[in-house]
TrEMBL record:
UniProt keywords, alphabetically: Glycosyltransferase, Transferase
Protein's name according to its UniProt entry: Glycosyltransferase 2-like domain-containing protein
Family designation: Belongs to the glycosyltransferase 2 family.
InterPro entries named among the record's database cross-references: Glyco_trans_2-like, Nucleotide-diphossugar_trans
PANTHER family linked to this entry: GALACTOFURANOSYLTRANSFERASE GLFT2 (PTHR43179:SF12), RHAMNOSYLTRANSFERASE WBBL (PTHR43179)
Domain Glycosyltransferase 2-like: 4-118
Highest taxon of source: Bacteria
Pfam family, one: Glycos_transf_2
Amino acid sequence: MLYIVIPVFNRAHFTRECLLSLRKQTDQRFRTVVVDDGSTDGTDKMLATEFPEVEVVTGDGNLFWTAGVNAGIRRALDLGATRIMTLNNDLVTDPDFVAQMLAASDQNPTAVLGALELDIATGKPIYGGEILDFRTNTRRDLLDELKPEQYQGLHPVTYLPGRGLLIPKAVIDKIGLFDEKRLPHYLADFDYTSVARRAGFPVYCNYDARLSTYPDESGQTLTRKHRSLKGYFQHLFGIRGGGNMVNFTHFALKNCPKPYLPYFLLNGYARRVVGYFLH
């Protein structure tokens, strides 16, 4: 059984739209676990009254993304999950999203799978996975390399985000849960899927499974819209900082081949120090 785990903190309107899109799935062979980490905007009442079919795990407001996801996964495993999918609440799934993910998983039962992401405003693809070259710390965006007629099927990638990430139980049995101690928020998903790949599990972006996102609502985008000295510090050292230096260091030490590690670290630090002002 597939269990979809969605961590939320406020933004009830996003959660509602996400759950409504799951209700419209052509394949209903799944259950949903929402981890409500201390929301104060009525999310709890909305879930209870509008979505009684959803299993709710409650946090105290200090879980952040990684611990929230792990709490949901633990509950799903207790309920008998054989496949886990992590999903953010600020997205809307296509009606055949679950069907396409399950079909790909049935054909590739040990694979970790992500999905093609579209801009909800334009319908255009905005993320389809990437290949990281650890030697040079450069990334190749698959959307830039593939022709539109190739936007289908499975494409191998280095890692995947947690937005629509399907994880077979066999992966969890071997490598455990997300690294909530060292990576409490950002990079935990990229780290997990990279660790899974290095452990021998294929990692693919499934272009037949599509979901729509709000790119302007990401934490990193919002932070950079209002640049300040405080924002710069949060970017480099805050738990929600997209350029968090400590998180990057943990990711590098865990995933970068040792011969390339010195340059990878130095290059990554430099990118983070100046990147806040360039994007």
